[in-house]
Amino acid sequence: MNTKQVGFITFGKEGARIVTADGIEKVDALPDPPGKLYKGGAGDTAFAGFLLGYLNGASNQISAQIAMKLSNAKLSENSPHPSDPQSILRRAMPRVAQQIFNPVAGRSISHLP
């Protein structure tokens, strides 16, 4: 588990920032998904994604990638509170699991809390 203090601040289309004692690192936003966008809750979803990675031992940069992917998936939801909140995870996590989590300490997404 990470033990250093870190901050993660979202800025909408401007991406996010990782704040540590070493400085501030810019995280680029992903391109908007096609179709109508509902932006409510995207920042909260990004923060939850960052925590998902960070609390499972991923680096700040990997945690930020997870954050941006989940936030991007949230943009295409038609409500701040979808009837199936896990739909965001089901849509985004297959890519996250394949591209990010499998290489991190040999973990797979099925082993995350």
Description:
The chain has a 3-stranded antiparallel β-sheet with strand order 1-2-3, covered by helices on one side. It has helices at 42-55, 60-75, 86-101, and strands at 7-10, 16-20, 23-27. The protein has one domain: Ribokinase (UDP-N-acetylmuramoyl-L-alanine:D-glutamate ligase), CATH 3.40.1190.20. It has 3 helices and 3 strands; from the N terminus they run E-E-E-H-H-H. It has 113 residues and is of the alpha+beta class.
Notable characteristics:
alpha+beta; 113 residues; 3-stranded antiparallel beta sheet; 3 strands; 41% helix; UDP-N-acetylmuramoyl-L-alanine:D-glutamate ligase
Q: Please tally the helical runs, counting DSSP H or I stretches of 4 or more residues.
A: 3
- Kindly, what is the distance between the CA atoms of the first and last residues, rounded to a whole number of angstroms? 13 Å
Count of DSSP strands: 3
Helix coverage percent = 40-55%
Question: Could you spell the SSE succession in H and E letters?
Answer: EEEHHH
Low-confidence stretches: 108-113
Main sheet overview: 3 strands, antiparallel
Total domain count: 1
The CATH topology turns out to be: UDP-N-acetylmuramoyl-L-alanine:D-glutamate ligase
Q: What's the shape?
A: globular
Rg, alpha carbons: 14 Å
What fraction of the residues are assigned to beta strands by DSSP?
A: 5-15%
Going by CATH, the homologous superfamily would be Ribokinase
Average pLDDT taken over every residue: 77
User: What would you call the structural class?
Assistant: alpha+beta
Strand order of the largest sheet: 1-2-3
Oligomeric assembly? single chain
